[in-house]
Amino acid sequence: MYEGVIQDLIDELGKLPGIGPKSAQRIAFHILGADPSQVRRLAEVLLDVKERIRFCAICGNVAEHEQCRICADPRRDPTVLCVVEEPKDVVAIEKTREFHGRYHVLGGAISPIDGIGPDDLRIRELLQRLADGTVKELILATDPNLEGEATATYLARLVKPLGVRVTRLASGLPVGGDLEYADEVTLGRALEGRRQLDV
What we know:
Dna Topoisomerase Vi A Subunit, Chain: A, domain 2, DNA binding, DNA_Rcmb_RecR, 7 helices, alpha/beta, Helicase, Ruva Protein, domain 3, DNA repair, 2 domains
């Protein structure tokens, strides 16, 4: 264990997802040996992100303005809405270049064990978006794990009375995996082969 601010830095870096103690230590010593201008730039960017980035008022994706670039793009198909758990999932699907509709970011998935229920997600906002009848197809692109499946089933049942076609990404994605780790080809095929959910 180190003393003072270097240990504080290691501890803070270790709180980041995917960064274990060894990685945190390696990053801390990289920062320590880096040019002060690089470190200053990193600090500025971190602060800038916290100050300038917000969530899109429409879909919940990350944005620098009130609307994200996807919601602001009139070329996107407003009749197809893809529901994802997190903004990183939007990026994963966008990389496929197969989807031309719009998104709705839930902000997570239903997970009773973690104390996350439907009221903790952006489901109310989703229903508001569906209310005007513009959306004809709702693609449920939640992660193919227990929480993602539970969320998809919940949403499918909730939306069924609205008469919107509800589909789920096709298989091919590994069960228990996260969308952000799927390669573009697999994710693209999953989008092409999506199926309707019968609940």
